[in-house]
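RECORD TYPE: inverse folding
INPUT: structure tokens
STRUCTURE:
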């Protein structure tokens, strides 16, 4: 059997192309270099924001943080929807060598309390909409932190105070970080199967990832315009912001996803690269606008959750002039892991033939597919856990034992079930923690979800395991119906699946039709939440 274990070619040169620089220095120099270029398009106010304007506000904020005595031993946080100034505390903190950690406004009450207790931020910059939740969570967690509000507040400091001119701003230079392997940013695991963990990413790792082949999803000449909706809580937003800054590109900044508006934004701002999770991508297609010019779009990318062949085909049909692909990355790796090379015609051809592939694992990685029980390395077309090593990987989990994240050879356990084929094209099948067993047979929710999604009545679905005294778990399908299909019954959908799977994969726990499926901000299904709701009789 041909077992594939990719071996990284070691060399003594710095691999990230930034000569052992730290994030603050690289961002500072890039903002100066491209000071006249637009960094942010702001549709809500119809403004533009240049790199030079962002630099000035970031310097002033950094000086104010320094005045307050905040040091690299502290953590600066934000909790805000995407808006003009949501990136400023992030950049200012990096200028001072201070670790940052971002709270997503859509986090649950329990997750927010957990993360507050974990990182105990010195200060949190927050928008008015998120303020009530944060006040409640701070009180319950008994964490003492300062709040600074993006907007008007009589109770807390206003962020505009941080933007007041300073006599020191013209001579400002970022702090030099002595060790680029130090943690720069703390991101959090998605929390789909448990409480989020703080993932510590180094200056070196983040900079290395934004300079690798996997990030070449646009033309590197400064004319690219990016649109994605994630906040800086997610690695995708961190990497894309830094990529825009370091290459003089622009991004469209929106508070929240609006499927119909996305079409108009692509036309208005001549968007060249669009990034949407699978569920957002489906809504986007369903809200297709007539007579909207999307010819500027060169790259349409999806990922972060299981993708169906039907979705990829529909996206390709909708954007014939664009390269449509899915990528695979993890916060623990500081970014991208696998993607087709958009500059290689052979790989673009492979992508069209194999739309469900995430591409090829990037050459910076050592990797293997193993049986998660026996630890045996597997060969082509054999499904197992994907594990990897890379110089850019995390420093570990913040204030937690990280040993369980690695195997005996030091490879990070991705938690993803994957395989590769004879052409080394890489496929993600499902999450190990989302897999369950019926009478000893492995049930992969993503496989059953793809079948359900092929039914014309089904808009969204999640498959979960319902505990059974004798059999282990019985699969259940939770379904949101498309408009116009209110007559579709659970029995119809159960039969539809039964006719297409083996007896062991039948939806023995039936189908429940609901109005909404609980997901994270990036479209990952919160299966534990859905399962608990079923067990509690809430749905």
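DESIGNED SEQUENCE:
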């Amino acid at each position: 059997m041909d077992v594939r274990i990719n071996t990284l070619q070691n060399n003594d040169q710095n691999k990230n192309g930034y000569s052992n620089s730290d994030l603050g220095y690289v961002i500072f120099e890039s903002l100066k270099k491209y000071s006249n270029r637009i960094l942010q398009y702001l549709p809500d106010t119809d403004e533009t924001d240049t790199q030079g304007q962002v630099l000035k506000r970031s310097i002033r904020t950094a000086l104010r943080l320094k005045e307050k005595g905040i040091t690299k031993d502290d953590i600066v946080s934000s909790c805000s929807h995407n808006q003009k100034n949501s990136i400023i505390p992030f950049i200012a903190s990096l200028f001072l060598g201070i670790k940052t950690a971002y709270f997503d406004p859509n986090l649950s009450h329990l997750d927010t309390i957990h993360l507050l207790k974990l990182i105990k931020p010195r200060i949190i910059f927050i928008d008015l909409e998120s303020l009530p939740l944060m006040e409640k969570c701070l009180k319950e967690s008994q964490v003492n932190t300062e709040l600074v509000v993006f907007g008007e507040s009589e109770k807390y400091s206003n962020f505009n105070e941080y933007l007041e001119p300073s006599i020191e701003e013209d001579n400002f230079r970022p702090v030099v970080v002595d060790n680029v392997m130090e943690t720069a940013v703390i991101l959090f695991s998605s929390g789909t199967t448990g409480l989020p963990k703080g993932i510590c990413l180094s200056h070196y790792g983040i900079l290395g990832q934004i300079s690798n082949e996997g990030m070449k999803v646009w033309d590197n000449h400064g004319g690219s315009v990016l649109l994605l909706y994630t906040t800086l809580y997610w690695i995708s937003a961190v990497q894309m912001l830094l990529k825009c800054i370091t290459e003089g590109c622009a991004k469209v900044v929106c508070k929240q996803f609006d499927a119909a508006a996305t079409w108009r934004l692509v036309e208005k701002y001549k968007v060249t690269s669009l990034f949407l999770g699978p569920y957002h991508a489906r809504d986007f297609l369903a809200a297709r606008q007539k007579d909207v010019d999307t010819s500027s779009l060169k790259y349409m990318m999806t990922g972060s959750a299981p993708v169906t062949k039907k979705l990829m085909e529909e996206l390709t049909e909708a954007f014939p002039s664009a390269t449509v692909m899915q990528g695979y990355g993890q916060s623990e790796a500081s970014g991208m892991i696998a993607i087709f090379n958009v500059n290689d015609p052979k790989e673009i051809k492979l992508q069209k033939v194999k739309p469900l592939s995430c591409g090829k694992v990037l050459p910076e990685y050592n990797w293997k597919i193993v049986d998660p029980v026996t630890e045996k390395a597997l060969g082509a077309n054999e499904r197992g856990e994907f594990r990897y090593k890379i110089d850019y990987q995390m420093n570990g989990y913040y204030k937690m034992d990280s040993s369980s994240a690695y195997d005996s050879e030091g490879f990070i356990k991705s938690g993803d079930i994957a395989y590769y084929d004879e052409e080394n094209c890489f496929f993600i099948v499902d999450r190990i923690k989302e897999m369950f067993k019926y009478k000893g047979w492995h049930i992969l929710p993503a496989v059953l979800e793809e079948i359900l999604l092929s039914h014309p009545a089904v808009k969204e679905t999640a498959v979960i395991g319902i505990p059974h005294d004798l059999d282990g778990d019985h699969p259940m399908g939770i379904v949101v119906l498309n408009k116009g299909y209110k007559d579709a019954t659970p029995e119809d959908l159960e039969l539809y699946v039964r006719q297409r799977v083996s007896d062991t994969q039948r939806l023995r726990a039936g189908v429940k039709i609901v109005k909404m499926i609980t997901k994270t901000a990036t479209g990952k299904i919160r299966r534990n939440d859905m399962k608990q709701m079923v067990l509690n009789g809430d749905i």
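NOTES: Residues 7-14 have pLDDT under 50 and may be disordered.
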